[in-house]
Amino acid sequence: MDIPNTPHHHHSQFQFHSESSSTITTTTTTTKRPKHHHHQQQHDQHDQEHVLIAGLPDHIAQLCLSSINPSLLFSISHSWRRLIYSPSFPPFFSLYAILSAPKSHSFMEFHTFDPISHTWRILPRPPPIRHLLLRHPSFLSRSLSVQSISAAGSLVLLAATTHNLSPALPRPLIFHPLSATWSFGPMLAAPRRWCALGALGPTVYVASGIGAHFSIHVARSLEKWDVRNPNAAVWEKMTDLKDGRFSREAIDAVGWRQKLCMVNVKGDAAKEGAVYDVAEDAWKEMPEGMLYGWRGPVAAMEEEVMYVVDEAKGVLRRYLAEEDSWEEILENERFKGAEQLVAEKGKLCVVSASGISVVDVAASPPRIIPVLLPEGFEPVAVHVLPRMPVGH
């Protein structure tokens, strides 16, 4: 993912510029050229604009170009620009966001930010679903969660609330970026208003939570589902939690080293932690140091390196498993009030009251890149997924 630091606006106000490499100039003369010669020129120009590399077959040229940064290809020629959005070119990563209007009760849109063309685009309209509520008129101070996760290259919406405070999604709603299509996953045995939601590889895990009413059976439950087979798959029941204390909020179950790590309360408050070991199908106590430093949203890079943003202090930290402690990386005002953290391809995306910030933790020192949102929107959630093809 390569998010630029140049501000851009809603939809596609970025203009394609003509490239000198794809333009054929002719000399003006007083002699009229034969009509067939003019048609031949147009044909030659059309062929030249579609040739990837002169003198090479396209399939060989694609192999050569696929190793080059797509942002460089985009700026050189129209034919290379078309190539990077074609099914045959390795898809680069883009930012996907659920956006809402400030103080709106229910208005939401699904957008993607293309880091190559620097534009926001609206995703195709999802199939009809129940009315999702962000804020209830009777509880204006409380935000209602819309829980989503990325797994197997797809965006999965799994839990939300309706106007009567009931679960809005009886089954997962899935967006597939490479085909720009929506589909549904298998029915949930007990739809949730909130839960602990996490993923390890292509498998999505749902733990605890609450439906229309509290149920100890749901509050202790753990189920999993493989996203790669949405039509034929079912939710598989795993070992229950020891109690229902993780049903209080919509929380993240962070996939890390073949384990799911989660706490029962968000933010800087005192909390309890639990770790689910996938190989053993067993719940264990969270290490003391991990729990102590869990003071905001947490994410794991490639499911190996865990990061946290201290939402009160605006500090980014990295977990050192061998020492069971958190190492400070940097502090920034934009991190204060952090609500979500996503880790992918050497970069972190922080969603906070300041908007979306991309942190290049692979750089030394780490670099912070603000992402300007479409005018009139604020982020509900963000994900990093393969780019959506042009034309959708």
Write up this protein.
- With 392 residues, the chain is mainly β.
- The chain is built from 6 helices and 26 strands.
- A hairpin with a 7-residue loop joins strand 1 (93-100) and strand 2.
- The longest helix has 16 residues, at 35-50.
The overall pLDDT, averaged over residues, is 82
How much strand content do the residues show? Answer: 35-45%
Instruction: From the 3D structure, determine the CATH topology of the largest domain.
Output: Neuraminidase
- Examine the secondary-structure arrangement and name the CATH architecture of the largest domain: 6 Propeller
Distance between the termini: 20 Å
- Largest sheet features: 8 strands, mixed
- Spatial shape: globular
CATH class of the largest domain: Mainly Beta
Strand line-up in the sheet with most strands: 13-12-11-10-14-15-16-17
Share of helix among residues? 10-25%
How many domain regions?
A: 3
- The gyration radius over C-alpha positions equals 24 Å
- Summed up, the helix count is 6
Element layout with pairings:
Layout lengths: L34 H16 L7 H8 L4 H5 L3 H7 L8 E8 L7 E7 L4 E4 L12 E2 L2 E5 L3 E5 L2 E6 L13 E4 L4 E4 L9 E7 L2 E8 L5 H4 L2 E5 L9 E2 L13 E6 L2 E5 L9 E5 L4 E4 L2 H5 L5 E4 L3 E6 L4 E6 L4 E7 L8 E5 L2 E6 L2 E6 L6 E5 L6 E9 L6
Parallel strand pairs: 10-14
Antiparallel strand pairs: 1-2, 1-26, 2-3, 4-5, 6-7, 7-8, 8-9, 10-11, 11-12, 12-13, 14-15, 15-16, 16-17, 18-19, 19-20, 20-21, 22-23, 23-24, 24-25
